[in-house]
Amino acid sequence: MSKIAPCLWFAREAEEAANFYVSLFPDSRIDHVQKNIVDMPSGKSDEILVITFTLAGQRFMALNGGDRIEYNHAISLEVDCADQAEVDRLWDGLVDGGTPVHCGWVTDRYGVYWQIVPAVLRKYIADPDPAKAARVMRAWMGMVKLDIAGLEAAYRG
């Protein structure tokens, strides 16, 4: 288990969000639900304070903080996808109630920023041929949801 786990702040939707995320990713589960022991600014006693959960083997925590705090692009969750089917499934799930951004980024219904990226993109932009890498970069920058066929076409020229 990793020593570092992202903590996602929610006003009161921590349980709903954790269940939503767990439903999208294989090898995911709710690990623990901690309720408030006493009344706190974030909620009354016996209401959920923190949920620890695992997404695709990575530990996370969701906190009901009481107040809404907006997320921004400074922190996002990147997901390496094996193929277009995985890109499509995760993108479609996260954009439901959320907002597509650009270059594979999506903001989910809770305002969390995600990057849904095919693993092959790293190979293409790291190619020693700068012309190939540049074509892929230009194609990538023009996409909203990433399309592997379009990236491959740019790579081939």
Walk me through the structure:
By secondary structure, this protein is an alpha/beta fold. It folds into two domains: 1-69, 2,3-Dihydroxybiphenyl 1,2-Dioxygenase, domain 1 (Roll); 71-157, 2,3-Dihydroxybiphenyl 1,2-Dioxygenase, domain 1. It is built from five helices and eight strands; from the N terminus they run E-H-E-E-E-E-H-E-E-E-H-H-H. It has helices at residues 14-24, 84-95, 120-125, 130-141, 148-156; strands at residues 7-10, 29-35, 48-55, 58-64, 77-81, 99-100, 105-107, 113-118. Strands 1-4-3-2 form a four-stranded mixed β-sheet, covered by helices on one side. It has a four-stranded mixed β-sheet with strand order 5-8-7-6. A hairpin with a 4-residue loop joins strand 6 and strand 7 (105-107). It starts with 6 loop residues before the first strand and ends with a helix. The mean pLDDT is 95. It holds the Pfam family 3-dmu-9_3-mt. Residues 3-117 form the PhnB-like domain. It comes from Rhizobium tropici.
Identify the CATH homologous superfamily of the largest domain: 2,3-Dihydroxybiphenyl 1,2-Dioxygenase, domain 1
Give me the CATH fold name of the largest domain: 2,3-Dihydroxybiphenyl 1,2-Dioxygenase, domain 1
Low-confidence runs of at least 5 consecutive residues: none
Order of helices and strands: EHEEEEHEEEHHH
CATH architecture descriptor text of the largest domain: Roll
Number of distinct helices: 5
Could you describe the largest sheet, including whether it forms a barrel? 4 strands, mixed
Share in helix? 25-40%
Number-wise, the strands total 8
Number of domains: 2
